[in-house]
Amino acid sequence: MSKDIREGILLGIGNPLLDISATVDDDFLKKYELKANDAILANEKHKPLYDELIEQYNADFIAGGAVQNTMRVAQWFLEKPKVAVYMGCVGKDKYSKILEEKAKENGLNVRYQYTDKEPTGTCAVLITNGGKYRSLCANLAAANCFSPSHIEKNKKIIEDASFFYISGFFLTVSPETIQAVAKHAFEKNKVFTMNLSAPFLCEFFKKPMRAALPYVDVLFGNESEAEAFSKANDLGTTDLKEIALKILNMEKINTKRKRVVIITQGASPVLLAKDGSISEFPVPKLPEEKVIDTNGAGDAFVGGFLAQYIQDESLETSIKCGIWAATQIIQRSGCTYEGKPDFAP
Length: 345
Description:
alpha/beta; UDP-N-acetylmuramoyl-L-alanine:D-glutamate ligase; nine-stranded mixed sheet; five-stranded mixed sheet
């Protein structure tokens, strides 16, 4: 790894959540009207779910939130603290202390906005079918309170960063912040990256997503998100390669840099769309007994990718590192890792 990479070159903005992770049965999902392998925002009927998980199941607490996970994984590869900065809103409570401690242990430069209006956000990670499926139910709480004023207060951090990563989940919180950061990236010719993050966002947050897209240099998504995007935007195809190429050709404001679209599909090859063509990158097949938890796979993929990409490595090397990272993470519970990464391109 490059040791001379500077602090603060990468900034991630998202929803800091404490993951409450447990293995449950299908009846538990039915009780709360949840689907396996889905991600939703909690509503009133989900409120008792969190206490039930803590009291009746052997739940693990893990520092979570998609972008925070991605930044932690990027830091793992970079082996130099504070290369990545992370922003999001938390409550003034014990959960935010746990989150901050875990993030700092992983080398992240954490710049939370604090609110006393709401507690720190939590995400139930419900693991079913022998670890193969996970259903996410996020109670954003404090994460919803992020305001663009936090960007103003931390102007120097924005100016110091050369790469930005924001999850689609943040579209539900502060589209104004996304626009402000995206415009800054455009004006300074910096790299702005985003993730589709969940199928429901493509449908219900289509307007802010389409407003952000013209600024996006690198767009990540998985197969179900790409299909949902195609449906919501009337692209007229379910073919993932065609979808990726159509997104590639959508309006882009910064003409100095062509857009890149990357679609992951679990154990199937990763698709890279650039310059009007598609490349495929095989994913090594793990024996089933080694797959413990696929929850952090997408976040880890982007973390591995960005760790290389911010060092001017090729898209090919960056994608291979993303695949390597995701393969490591799914062999553990939660988006966790240990030891030093021994990725070799």
